């Protein structure tokens, strides 16, 4: 039901493919509620987690997803070892191929690295985040989470708040929600707004109250703390004052709006604890759904003829 | 050996020649250019006989049949990176000049960002000497503006000039310090050579790897805004006006830069400008593949910019077409897009890509050849780019109708880094004659 060997981004997917992943994920979510959570479809397959950026959350989620499907998992952390020795990306990729991997889950700080690997290797490449380009499984799990609460995507108002320009999560979510018919808004300071982003058919707000008005889904992003020293922001306090998600501000959104965050959170910078832990928050559900979605992606890609 | 080129269409903008004719070469010099159907003036060597046939063929005469081809002055590239000394794994004077003659270029001006930087007469002498021994065409070094291109002190411009540098530039980097740029423009008036500016505001471009705009947004790559170039163009034009120096703007890539230069020229400011084939051929849309062969500085821009550059070429706001030939080893390109080197190996595709401008009616064939021969030669103050009697026999013979597919693996340059691999283009060079030596590419 997927037409490519890789999952490089949401950009490349059709709405049908997205729904097929989400449907498959809901099957796996049931599996995850069972007593015995392991199923056999990837027995004998090897998944390599190739992480050039530290990310315990995403790596653990992929690792567990692969293991639930009975695959063997190798974690290849390159952040400090080979790269400092001068090994190139190409050499690393060829090494992984020589190890006989069937899937590579790749996280890299540079956009386009999954595409580079895809050209170099004929095994399945799954993008687990490349620079400011995409983080497709995050967007898929966000869709899954929203669907489970709202039962539809079309017509919903989705507000994404924060450092949009540097965010792969924001981009993947914009593509995903727009493809399925939602109305997407981004709320961010002008210094963190990507050039010409409105061409994607979304609205840009620099004011929280206006941007949150009538929102069904509020997604706030992690603010990298070094943005201040790079001159994007005068101070984190000022950022919180202008763009922090507080219970006060939640009032302009719909009464049943849900709050999401891709994690890890900076409490008191982009989100107030009262909201993060409040009744509208679905942040922990996102983590569980992430597991089901990643199982679905691995499962479906395994079925693609190479 | 003497050479007679027959049956070709001779186009030499320096003498306003365009027509069928014959060229006789003796001892590496152009002896006679004879136009058939004698309209206009007939040109010949001082010792030639009036209205006579070309000299009778002797045993040493090699006859080249240029039927169906244009016969033009060897192209002049005012912006080449030969990489030697220091980066011989990317290119050498030997391989770079071979690539040049393959592309129809018989004169190249090489940028000083080598290692060591060409900021002293010993480096200049090394380049000139090496080019004499191993080069396939004429090489003119460009000296650095500042010592080690560090923006602190002027290099010894006069000494460099005397040892053979034809212009000055800190190319690869801008002269960030406006005061140093002012001094360079002032000081260069002693010898009236151009100061070539690589226009880039390094604060604005920091970390950028492609044009800033919608495409950089959807690729998640850091953009270089057009303003990074235009701010420096505007600054240098103001400094040129202030000093009366001779300014040349390298690799113009944006609509705004074209506008600034056009307006400055209209006010009588002494500025010239070049662009490169990729800036009127490609847009940032092409980067969707993340192909690092498209990574170049300044970056390829948008359709609007491409159109503006074409208008600038058409109305002579942009005087010349240069290659900015920037060869790299595959290891420097087979990388993450962010980490890959900037640059395109351009010598071997420049003319066919530029010939598209004729098809698109941006330039006439003669105007195009003007911008690739006598114009750059004049800007650099070198006696090249002309078929006038007595000149070095530097000639390119090109079939403008024959199509070929670009195959980077056949490049003579060590740098196979071209985004045009697989493109089918017209106007590859059939034969090049460099100082009387014949290279046959068919
Ligand atoms: Zn440059």
Report on the architecture of this protein.
The complex is a heterodimer of chains A (306) and B (442). With 306 residues, chain A is α/β, with parallel strands linked by helices. Chain A has twelve helices and nine strands. In chain A, strand 1 (46-51), helix 2 (56-68) and strand 2 form a beta-alpha-beta unit. In chain A, helix 2 (56-68) packs across helix 12. The longest helix of chain A has 20 residues, at 283-302. Chain A starts with 14 loop residues before the first helix and ends with a helix. With 442 residues, chain B is of the alpha/beta class. Chain B has a domain at 74-380: Metal-dependent hydrolases (TIM Barrel). Chain B has helices at residues 93-102, 121-134, 157-162, 178-187, 202-205, 214-219, 226-243, 255-266, 277-281, 303-314, 330-333, 350-359, 365-372, 374-380, and strands at 2-12, 17-26, 29-35, 43-44, 61-65, 70-73, 75-80, 105-110, 138-143, 167-169, 195-197, 210-211, 223-224, 247-249, 271-275, 320-321, 395-398, 403-405, 424-426, 429-434, 437-440. In chain B, the strands form four sheets. In chain B, strands 1, 2, 3, 4, 5, 6, 17, 20 and 21 form a nine-stranded mixed β-sheet that branches. In chain B, strands 7-8-9-10-11-14-15-16 form an eight-stranded parallel β-sheet, with helices on both faces. In chain B, strands 12-13 form a two-stranded parallel ribbon. The radius of gyration of chain B is 21 Å and the shape is globular. Chain A binds chain B through residues 11, 88-90, 108-113, 115-116, 130-134, 168, 171, 194-197, 199-200, and chain B through 212-214, 216-223, 289-290, 331, 334-339. The structure holds zinc ion (ZN).
């Amino acid at each position: 039901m997927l037409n490519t060997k890789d999952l490089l981004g949401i950009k490349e997917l059709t709405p049908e493919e997205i729904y097929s992943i989400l449907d498959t994920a809901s099957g796996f979510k049931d599996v995850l509620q069972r007593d015995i959570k392991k199923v056999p479809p990837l027995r004998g397959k090897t998944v390599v987690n190739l992480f050039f950026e530290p990310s315990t959350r995403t790596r653990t989620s992929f690792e567990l997803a692969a293991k639930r499907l009975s695959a063997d998992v190798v974690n290849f952390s390159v952040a400090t070892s080979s790269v400092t020795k001068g090994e190139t990306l190409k050499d690393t990729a060829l090494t992984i191929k020589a190890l006989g991997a069937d899937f590579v889950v790749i996280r890299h700080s540079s956009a386009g690295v999954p595409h580079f690997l895809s050209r170099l290797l004929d095994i399945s490449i799954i993008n687990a985040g490349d620079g400011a380009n995409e983080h497709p499984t995050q967007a898929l799990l966000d869709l899954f989470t929203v669907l489970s609460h709202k039962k539809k995507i079309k017509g919903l108002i989705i507000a994404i708040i924060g450092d949009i320009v540097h965010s792969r999560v924001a981009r993947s979510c914009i593509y995903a929600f727009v493809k399925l018919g939602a109305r997407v808004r981004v709320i961010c300071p002008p210094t963190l707004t990507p050039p010409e982003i409105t061409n994607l058919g979304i609205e840009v707000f620099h004011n929280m109250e206006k941007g949150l008005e009538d929102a069904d889904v509020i997604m706030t992003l992690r603010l990298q703390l070094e943005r201040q020293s790079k001159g994007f922001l005068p101070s984190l306090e000022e950022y919180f004052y202008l763009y922090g998600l507080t219970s006060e501000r939640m009032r302009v959104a719909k009464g049943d709006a849900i709050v999401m965050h891709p994690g890890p959170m900076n409490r008191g910078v982009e989100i107030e604890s009262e909201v993060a832990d409040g009744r509208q928050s679905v942040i922990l559900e996102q983590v569980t759904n992430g597991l089901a979605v990643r199982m679905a992606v691995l499962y479906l890609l395994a079925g693609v003829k190479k | 050996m003497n050479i007679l080129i027959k049956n070709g269409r001779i186009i030499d903008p320096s003498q306003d020649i365009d027509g069928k004719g014959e060229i006789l070469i003796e001892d590496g010099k152009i002896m006679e250019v004879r136009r058939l159907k004698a309209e206009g003036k007939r040109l010949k060597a001082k010792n030639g006989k009036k209205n006579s046939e070309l000299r009778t063929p002797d045993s040493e005469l090699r006859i080249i049949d240029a039927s169906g081809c244009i016969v033009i002055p060897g192209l002049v590239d005012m912006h080449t990176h030969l990489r030697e000394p220091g980066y011989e794994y990317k290119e050498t004077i030997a391989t770079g000049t071979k690539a040049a003659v393959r592309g129809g270029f018989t004169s190249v001006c090489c940028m000083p960002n080598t290692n060591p930087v060409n900021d002293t007469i010993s480096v200049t002498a090394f380049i000139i000497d090496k080019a004499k021994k191993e080069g396939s065409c004429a090489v003119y070094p460009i000296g650095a503006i500042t010592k080690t291109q560090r923006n602190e002190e002027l290099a010894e411009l006069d000494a460099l000039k005397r040892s053979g540098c034809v212009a000055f530039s800190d190319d690869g980097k801008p002269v960030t310090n406006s005061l140093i740029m002012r001094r360079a423009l002032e000081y260069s008036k002693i010898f009236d050579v151009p100061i070539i500016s690589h226009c880039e505001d390094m604060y604005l471009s920091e970390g950028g790897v492609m044009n800033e705009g919608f495409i950089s947004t959807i690729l998640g790559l850091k953009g270089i805004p057009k303003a990074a170039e235009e701010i420096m163009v505007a600054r240098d034009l103001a400094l040129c006006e202030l000093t009366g120096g001779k300014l040349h703007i390298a690799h113009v890539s944006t609509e705004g830069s074209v506008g600034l230069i056009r307006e400055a020229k209209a006010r009588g400011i002494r500025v010239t400008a070049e662009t490169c084939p990729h800036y009127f051929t490609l847009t940032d849309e092409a980067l969707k593949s993340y192909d690092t062969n498209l990574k170049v500085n300044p970056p390829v821009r948008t359709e609007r910019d491409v159109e503006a550059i074409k208008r600038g070429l058409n109305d002579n706001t942009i005087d010349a077409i240069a290659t900015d030939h920037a060869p790299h080893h595959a290891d420097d390109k087979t990388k993450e897009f962010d980490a890959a080197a900037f640059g395109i190996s351009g010598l071997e595709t420049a003319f066919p890509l530029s010939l598209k401008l004729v098809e698109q009616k941006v330039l006439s064939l003669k105007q195009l050849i003007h911008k690739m021969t006598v114009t750059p030669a004049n800007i650099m103050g070198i006696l090249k780019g002309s078929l006038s009697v007595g000149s070095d026999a530097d000639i390119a013979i090109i079939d403008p109708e024959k199509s070929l597919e670009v195959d980077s693996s056949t490049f003579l340059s060590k740098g196979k880094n071209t985004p045009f691999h697989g493109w089918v283009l017209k106007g590859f060079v059939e034969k090049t004659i460099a100082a009387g030596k014949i290279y046959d590419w068919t």
